[in-house]
Every structure is written in C-alpha cells, then in structure tokens.
Amino acid sequence: MYRYLLHRILQIAITMFLLIAMVFILFRVMPGDPASMVLDPKMPPEAKALMKKQLGLDEPIYSQFIIYMKNLLHGDLGRSFYYGRPVYDVIMERLPNTILLFTSATIISWGLGYALGKRIAWRRGTRFEHALTFMGLLFYSVFLPWFGLIMIWIFSYRLGLFPLGGMITPELWTAGGAGIIALVLDVLHHLALPLFVLTLLSFAGAMLLMRSSMLETLREDYILTARAKGLSEKVVRDKHAARNALLPMVTALALSLSFSMSGGVLTETVFSWPGLGKEIVSATLNYDYPLAQAAFIFLAAIVLMANLVADIIYAYLDPRIRY
Amino acid sequence: MGIIEYARTSIKENWSLFRRSRMGLLGLAILAFFAFLALLAPIPRLIDDMYHPMVGVDPEISYSTPPSLRHPMGTDFMGRDLLSQFLSGAQIAFAVGITAAVISVLIGTAIGLTSGYYGGKVDALLMRLADIVLVLPGLPFIIVIAAALGKMSIWIIVLLIALLGWPGVARVIRAQTLSLRERPFVEAARVAGAGDRRILLHHLAPNVLPLTFLYAALGVSGAILTEASLSFIGLGDPSVVSWGMMLQWAFTTGHTFRAPYWILPPGLAISLLSLSFYLVGRALEEIINPRLREP
Amino acid sequence: MKSLVFILLIALSFSPVYAQEKVYLRIGGQDEPKTLNIFKAGDKWSIEVIGWFFESLYTREPLTHKVIPWVAEDYPEFSDNVATIKIRKGITWNDGTPLTAHDVKFTADVILDFQIPRFYSDWEFVEKVEAVDDYTVKFYLKEGCTPLFLEGTLLSPIVQRNEWLPVVEEAKKKENPLKSLLEHQVERPRSAGPFVFSEWVKGSYVKIDARKDYWAKGKLIQGREIGPFYDGILFKIYGTTDAAVLALKKGEIDYISWTIDPGFVAELSKEESVTVTKSPGNGFYYLAFNVRKKPFSDLAFRQAVAYLVDKEFIVSRILQNYGEPAYTIVPPGNSFWHNNQTPRLGAGLSKEERIAKARDVLKSAGYSWDSAGNLLYPDGSRVEPFDILTPPADYDPLRAMSGMLIQEWLREIGVQATAKPTSFATIVQKVNTEQDFDAYILGWILGVDPDYMRVFFHTNQTMPEGYNPMGYSNPTYDALVDASARECDVEKRKELIFKAQEMIMQELPYVPLYFRDEIEAYNSATFTGWFEDLGGIGGSIIYLKPLSSEKPEKKGICGPIILLLTATLPLLLRRR
After folding, report:
1. Which of A248, B247, C23, C204 lies deepest, with the highest CB count within 10 Å?
2. Which residues contact C565 (CB under 8 A, 6 or more apart)?
3. Closest-CA residue to A265 (of A251, A275, A252)
4. Which SS3 state, helix, strand or coil, does residue C569 take?
C-alpha cells in the first residue's frame, strides 16, 4: 500500500512538473506582451522598455523558467502584473469561493446520482427508468449560460426567491449588526441557485454510471444468493448490490469535480460568483501570466489531488486490489 | 477483414439491436431533423440577399422584430433574418461537432491501440501524457491557446476541442486492447507471421471500432457545447454564424429577457442536438456492452 | 432530519433585520478595482474608486470642460518659464493634516524621478517644481508656454507626502525602483477628496464613506452644489450586463457604471423608476491603413474605401442610431474643438452611388478591372488580397461586425479584403510593435484636450511603439500640429486644430467610422441631480442628493430552505 502510494505521488509530481513547464512555455510564446496590457497605452516607448526590463521580461525563456521553478519550490508564485500583488494572495481570495461552490455541487449531484442510479438500475425497463434517464440526459446536454440566465430571470427576478448574483449582500455585511448565523445564511442564500443549476445539469453523469455499475453487480452470484436467502428487496438493493456497485463511482467523483471546475468560468460569469475560473480567463486575456499560470497550476493540482484521494479510497475499498 | 467491410457488416447486424432502443431511435430522429435543417442552410440566401445569415439585412427593418411572414423566426438586432442564421447554425454545429469528435477519436484510438499493444515504456509515456491532458482545465486551456495563437478561427477551435478530448478514448481503447491482445485470434495471427502493423490494423482495430463509434457520438455533444461556451464568453469566431454566436449576439445586444423568439431556438437546439448524440451514444453502448441490455 | 429543521428554525429567527439608516449610492460595476495604488491604477474600475481620494490643482468644469482653479487659488502666474501657483488654505487629508505645497512638490518629484508611466507624458516638459512656502509652488518649464501644461500637468492628482515618503525612499533602494513603487500595496489610501476608503471585501464589494469635513462641500459650480450629501458609495460587482440591468430594475443598485447596449433601452424605459440617458461619448472608432504599403499608399485608393464604407449604415444598424457617423476624429460632444466642416466623402449616398463613386475615383487614378472583376493597379498588376484586423467579439462585438461589413463592401469593387477577428494584444503587437499589417479597426478613448491630433499623425510617432503605426508622414501637417502645441492663445490654437482635422480628412490615414453615444441608466427614485456630460453621467455623482430614504429590501428565505432540501435529498431517499 505504501509503495503504491509513493508511486502515485511520484507520478503526480512528474505530471505536475510537465504541466507547469507546458503552461509556462505556452504563455511565453503568446504574441503581445504584458507591458502593453499592464500599462496605459499613453506610456512613452522608453518607459515601456524600462518597464519590460523591470518585469524581468527581457531574460531568455529558460532562465525565466529556472527562476520561476526555484521560486515556486519556495512557495513564491510571483507577482501579478495586473494587480501588482503577490499571486498567492489573489488566488487565496478566490480559491475558497470556487471550492465552496464546486465541491458542494459535485458532492450533491454525486449523492443524487448515486441514490437515483441505484433505483433506476433496480427498476430497469420501467417507465420510471426511462423518464429519469431521459430527464437526466436532457439536463446534461443543456447549455449552461443560457439555462442559468433563464433561471435567474425566473427565480431571482420574477419570483424574487434568490439574489441576482454574487456571494454576499453588501448592505448586510457593511451594517455590522448582523450575527454570524445571518451572514452564513446570506452566503447560503446566494449559493442556492448556482448550486441548484449545477446539480441539475450534472447529476446525470453520476446517475448513469451508477446505473451501469449496478447492472453489472446485479449479475453477480452473491446477489442471487442473497435473494435466495429471502432477504427483503431493499436490503439486497442497498446492502448488497449498491454497496458493491459504489466502487467505480469513487473515481467518477474525482473526474466530475475536474469537469465542473473547468466549466467554472461560465457558472461564475452568469452568477457573478467571485471564483478562480473567471480570474483565469481575465488574467489570460490581460496577459497577466504569473497569475494565469498559478491559477492553472492550482486548478490542476486540485484535480490531481482529488484523483489521488479517489485512488486511495478505491484501493482501500476494493478487496481485490492488494499492493 | 478490413475495417470498412467490418464496419458494414457490424452496422447491419447492430441495426436490429439499435432499433430496440426507443431512446436511441428518438435520438436518431432528432439528429435527422437537425441534419435536414443543416442541408437547408444554403437555400435562404439564394432567395434574396437579405437572407444572408451574416451580412444580409432587411432593408426595412433595422431592429429586432418578432416572427413575421417575411422572417418566420424574427430578426436580430440589426434586421438580419433569424431563420437563416438558425439554419446556418445547424450546419456549423454538425461541422464543428463531427469534425472535432472524429479527430479526437482518431487520435485517442491510435494512442490507445499503440499504448495497449506495445505496453512498457511507450505505454507509460503515452498514458502520462493522457493524464496531463485529462487534468487540464479544459475551457480555460482552450482560451489560453486561442490567445496564444491570437486568432479566433472556428477550425482552430475545433482542433483544440479535439486535442483535449482524446485521453478518455485512449484509456478505454487501451484497456480493451490489453484484453484483446491476449485473445487466441491475435496469437494465431502472430503465429501465422503477421507483423505488428498488420495485427494492429486488421485484427485489433476492427474489434475496438464499436467503442470508437460510441465515443465519437459522445464527443460530438461535448464539442458543440464547448464551441457555444467559447462564443458565450466572446471568444468564438465572429465571422461564423453558429448557435453560440447567435446567443452571444442576443446577450451582448441586450435581448436576453426581451426576445424569446431569438434566445430560445438556438439554446434549445444546442441542448437537443447534444441530447440526441447522447441518446444515440447510449443506445450504442447497450449494443456494445450486452450486460447493459435489458434482459 | 428533525435536528436539521430545528437548526434552520433557529437560524431564521436570527434572520437579518437591517434597518438601513445610512444612505449609500449603490453603483453596479463589471469588475472590482485592481489596485488602490494611485501610481499603478490605470483601469476604469480602480480609478472609479480611488479617483475620489485625490484632489488636483486645477479641475475641469462639467459641461464646458473649462479648466478652473481647484486646490489652486487662481490661475498660474507666468514669468518667463516659471509658473507660480498659490494653494488654498484649509484643505485637509483625512488624518487631519493640511494639504500643502510640499505635497504638490513631492508628487511632482515622484512622477519626474520615477517617470511614472501613467502621468509622465503630461510632465515631460516640466523641469522641476519648488515649494516656495507652505502654500506657494513654482513650476519650472523646459521650454516656453504650452497649453498642455494647464490642460494636462496641472490636472494630475496630488498624493500625500507623509504617506508616500517612506515608500518612495524604500523603493529607491531597490534594484527596480519603479516596479517596487508600482507594486507597493496600499491598504487604506489617504484621502483629501470627498470620500475616504472604508472597506473592500474582495470579489464582492467596495465601500467608501463620505468625508464630513470635505473642503469643497457646499461650493457652487455652475449653480450646482458640491456634495457629498449622502453617507458613501457602495460598488457592487455583476458578472453580466443582464444581471446588472435586472438589479437596477429591482432597485438593488442606483446606477450602472458602464455603457449599456441599445437593446436594453426599450426594456429599461418601461420601468418607472429607471431613467435611461444618452450622453455623447468621448472617443472614436476608425479603420486605419498601413500607408507605407501598396495599395494604401495611394490616396485614391484610400478615398475609394472612404466612399465605400457606409458609416450611416453602421450607425443605424449596428449602433441602432446611438451614435454619429464620424467625419473627423474629434467627437462632436467636445463641441469647442470639433470641426464639423470637414470633407464628408460618401455622406448620404446609396450603396450603388457609393460603388460608382469609388470606381470613378479609382478609374481616374488609372486603376482598371480584369475580366473576373478584380481590381488592377495602373501598371496592370492585381491588387493583392489583404486582411483587416478587428478585435474579437469579447472585446467589442460592434467592431467585429463592422469589419465583416467593410469586407463585403470592399469586395464590391473587386478588392478581396478579409476581416480577421484577432485578440486585442495581437493587434497591438502586429500594428504597434512589428508594424506588419495591412489595415485594422480600433478605437480611442480621448481626453478633452485635442493634443491627440498632434500625436496620432506626427512623423515622429511612426517608429515602433509610437502612436502613428500607419506611417503617415507629412511635413506640412507636422509643422501645423507642432505649432498647436506651442500656441497658448486658445482661439488661435482652435484654428490650428480645425485645420489639422480638415487635413486628416483629406489625406485619410484613418477612415473614422463612428462616434458612439454613452447609454447609461440610473434609478430616478433614489437620488436626484443626475446630468449628462461628455462621456456619461458619472460626473454628476458628487452633486447627487438622496430622495426619500429607502425601505429595506425583503429577504426571501426560500433560498436556504431549497438549499437544505437539496443537500438532504440523498439522505431522505436513503432513510426508507
């Protein structure tokens, strides 16, 4: 087990290194230069050259890379050209928001998918199965920004149930008198609609996977045995079948997290959610590559970590895998 | 047996199985409907210049109007015909979706086969590459490359979608190849003196073909949604009238909550067309994996 | 499950009861400030916030845009190349200390020593600045009188010496002083202006509070009383214009601080409490050529293009008539400097007439067409296809669309032009740095002073990174605009600037396309005193007076309930 773990961690380290190198090179070969974006276009050419030199942009690529890697190992991600602040600070302001929205959406849609998946597998061939599968796939193929805006119009504007966007109500937070519970509730209130939309649009993935996995399990002998023993249907379904069908779902959890995070920019834009996805896009378009690079690395690292955790859980759960 | 003959017989054999899946048929029907629309796309501009989806404007209408006799789906903010834009969108959706899916499935199959068949260092290297691509945050990554290239051409977008889509396919094909490699018929071919190339192309490839079809079908949906997403954040190709672009025009010109006749059709079409490919894909999956089939 | 319901009930009993005693102006923006460091801040969203903290010696009066004394007591007194300025007493920073001549001198030293990119171009002709006593400063100019001194230099913000001195000293010790200064993190900027920084919750909002002891409060400018008459400003962030428009309709914000598209006007006008305004924009959009290259080096070709480009069509269709076709580059909203007597090629012609006119011009210059309709040079060789670079849709959908139209129009005379949507940075790279391009469409946001007439077309700006990437060079023009930068008599300068506009429209290094109106919207039920000015209604913020105090907004509780239900759904399903 430890050897396996070590092996995986080494693998991740190599993957991370290659990824960082790739992203680094990509940003250097981009046409245009940050000095032209960071600074006022009215800036005289000499001042621009001076600025470039001071940003360290006149060094050759490989030495820039070595410096970057060295700083990275010391935990220094550099400074954002655009904000003029340490990249780490900018990311740490956004990352928790992204994690809050997307992990909760992933977990909920995964839980929902699990619960529904085992049921439709159990009642296969029924109208219930077809209806749920169809609904699930229908939402799975919906174009998020379009759907999100329509939902905002209906639920936030017409019905007034949710805020129009953002993460908190400024008036409430500045007033100072609000208790901590009121503040938490305020965040939950803002979280509700994006969470609902994300869940609706992604639960089908987990549900269909659970269904397939469950169908495979149902053919196993021990299910027949359990039934033959006269155990109740629900016990067989939940205790015997579903539990064993859970395995492939573990990996799926990690994958669906990465999926929902990479589409984050859409969700964050539509719901004005102050997250990392939006930051990556604006940093890229602004040629703020210290920030864009770091945001990339963070997102990828989260996904890799999630995969690692999934692998460990998998190894732990599956009696057939021994290392 | 070559790939093509194999495909022909397998399609014939599998059609009867496919017909049993009601959802698969529904998917196929939706797909056929949009394919029909896509075929109609070149017609409007032959009728009158003002029906050109990009540069044709109604000489008398200079703002967005609801459906009328002259414009069955209405006009956009500058008086362009929405129906001809919608038809052109169908054409683009098929072109983008199918091209991207086919390229990514080709790459994925080639890599999966190679990786599974040769194993060892080749396998390790290719799978590490797949790992990297798999954890890349897809949409932001496409945006970075598009920015790096500086141009927003629809074919660059297609290529990028394809280049990000292959690892999933490669993994499955590799697993399949790993198990096929040990089958007696591969052994027999090898004994009969077939080289690696021959075994890969004539013995292994045909057997993973059904799987590639499945992934191609699923990949189309992903590609269509990605193109629309890029258009939504303004990074699409503005010289091409796609459904995503139609929506982007509606959003940026302030018609989101005002012109349902403009907003609803492209949004629904994106969703329905990708749904149809998912449905077809699922029906294919049941054919390939008999254990999923209803008893 | 019961415990969850219980927690929810407790939670709701604590629900917000926030009576809003204080009155804030709530502004909806697209983004938050990038920085609170005045030397770095170059983007709209930063300036919109920190702009309120700094006073300047002179300021522009709204509507007339005349420069009037502000922190200065009167206009500068010139003797030779030295300008003496007296400073008003009684202006204080929010830490209680007075704003003095030493602050002014310190600011000048920082800008000159560090060559601060944002300000230096306005200060190039300043030799040094001296504080004679606490309330008198002397500016030593390198050359004689220039209108740019009053119209630029003296409008720069003044920073506090106490606040910045340690930062500047520290930065000077560093290897990269400028970088270090620009990267300095300002947490709470000192303010001498009407508002003072209060709070910034990253990603959500910025709050600035009104200063009760603002020195200019109660003064009258053109009969308008200077405020602030409310407690502060709350800047909120919205990801899409749609969300901001809904927020305005719902009364969550009082003003959207960016130009909205004409499509929103109909929807917003229906709302009783919302007023939509149309102000003249201070900028122009244009098609530019690389005049070093054939066929653009030929005036006849440029004229033909100018005839073909149907500006009226672009304005009526793409801008929905919220704008004006451009026949010069000084916007009509800048009425003092705008010359409306420039040549208007093709104005009012139909498509067929335009094509005929363009063909005539080319024909008389010796051009011809081959059997396939392709345009041929007088020497019989074919006019090669070329690219028109346009910004992509995310940057500006209108320009991308204009490019498509121009492409089609050019094809009518057998010129195979292709509009290429290209990222903004790439256009800048190709046009400004490499100067490797055929034609492009971009725009300029302008200041009030028309000195840009000199910079955009001057021969000395044709080098890479200069403002004249087109390579347009005309000694007569250069002499004309150089004179305008030395002419301190305003009427004489106006003549020169008018002449320059005329010349540009004859020579056509740019084909100006359109001037865009700024469409904005505000809530007319919360504040009064909004007025339209060049560039928008943002200038009225300081004069606004609150109307009746607002009722606190109702808060839905359904959100948390639905959320908890969704969260517990798997649990519920399980417990059976």
Report:
1. B247
2. none
3. A275
4. helix
Contact A27 B148 (CB under 8 A): yes
> What's the pLDDT tens digit per position in A226-243?
777 877 878 878 777 787
Whole-number CA gyration radius for chain C: 28
Determine the 3-state secondary structure of A239 from DSSP: helix
Q: Are strands C386-390 and C417-421 parallel, antiparallel or unpaired?
A: parallel
Between CA B152 and CA C420 the distance in angstroms is 8
Q: Is A215 inside a domain boundary?
A: yes
Count of structural domains, chain B:
1
- CB contact set of C446 (below 8 Å; sequence gap of 6+): C282, C283, C284, C330, C331, C334, C452
Which helix (H) or strand (E) element contains residue A291? Answer: helix A289-317
Q: Where are the beta strands (DSSP E) in B70-202?
A: none
Which residues in chain C come in under a pLDDT of 50? 1-19, 550-559, 563, 566-567, 569-576
C505 neighbors C328 (Cβ within 8 angstroms): yes
Which residues neighbour A51 within 8 Å (Cβ) at sequence distance 6 or greater?
A: A35, A38, A39, A43, C117, C178, C179
Q: What CATH code is carried by the domain that includes residue B145? A: 1.10.3720.10
The answer for residues whose C-beta is within 8 angstroms of residue C353's C-beta and 6 or more apart is none
Contact C35 A182 (CB under 8 A): no
Length of chain C: 576
Q: Which residue of A has its CA nearest to C552?
A: A171
pLDDT value of residue A41: 47
- Half-sphere exposure of C437 toward its Cβ, with a 13 Å CA cutoff? 27
Neighbours of chain B (3+ CB pairs under 8 A): A, C
**C-beta of residue A138 within 8 angstroms of C-beta of residue B26:** no
Please indicate, yes or no, if residue B4 is contained in any of the structural domains: no
pLDDT in tens, C359-390: 999 999 999 999 999 999 999 999 999 999 98
Helix-, strand-, coil-residue percentages of chain B, each rounded to 5? 75, 0, 25
Interhelix angle A87-122/A276-285, nearest 10 degrees = 130
Contact B68, B74 (CB under 8 A): yes
Does residue A145 lie within any of the structural domains? yes
Substitution target from C315, C317, C434 for chain B, most B beta carbons within 10 A? C317
Residues C535 and C424: their CA atoms lie apart, in Å, by 23
Q: Can you give the length of chain A in residues?
A: 323
Does residue A287 lie in a domain region? yes
Are A40 and C117 in contact by the 8 Å Cβ rule? The answer is yes
Nearest to C231 by CA among C247, C207, C248, C262: C207
Structural domain including C568 reads 18-54+171-281+518-575
Closest CA to C192 of C166, C213, C177, C171: C213
Please name the amino acid found at residue C65: H
* Chain B hits for A265, Cβ within 8 Å: 139-140, 143, 233
Instruction: Provide the domain count of chain C.
Output: 3
Determine, yes or no, domain membership for C2: no
Q: In this structure, what is the dihedral angle of CA atoms B206, B209, B210, B212, given to the nearest 10 degrees?
A: 170
Cβ atoms B158, B96 nearer than 8 A: yes
Q: Does residue C8 sit within a domain?
A: no
* DSSP SS3 for A142: coil
Residue B173, both tokens: 């094909």
User: Where residue C44 sits, what CATH number does that domain have?
Assistant: 3.40.190.10
The answer to whether position B30 is within a domain reads yes
**Please, which residues have CB within 8 angstroms of residue C423's CB and are 6 or more apart in sequence?**
A31, A32, A285, B146, B147, B150, B151, B152, C391, C392, C395
CA distance A191 to A98: 11
Within a domain: residue A34?
no
Q: Which of A184-188, B121-125, B152-156, C247-251 has the lowest mean pLDDT?
A: B152-156
User: How many Cβ pairs closer than 8 A exist between chain A and B?
Assistant: 135
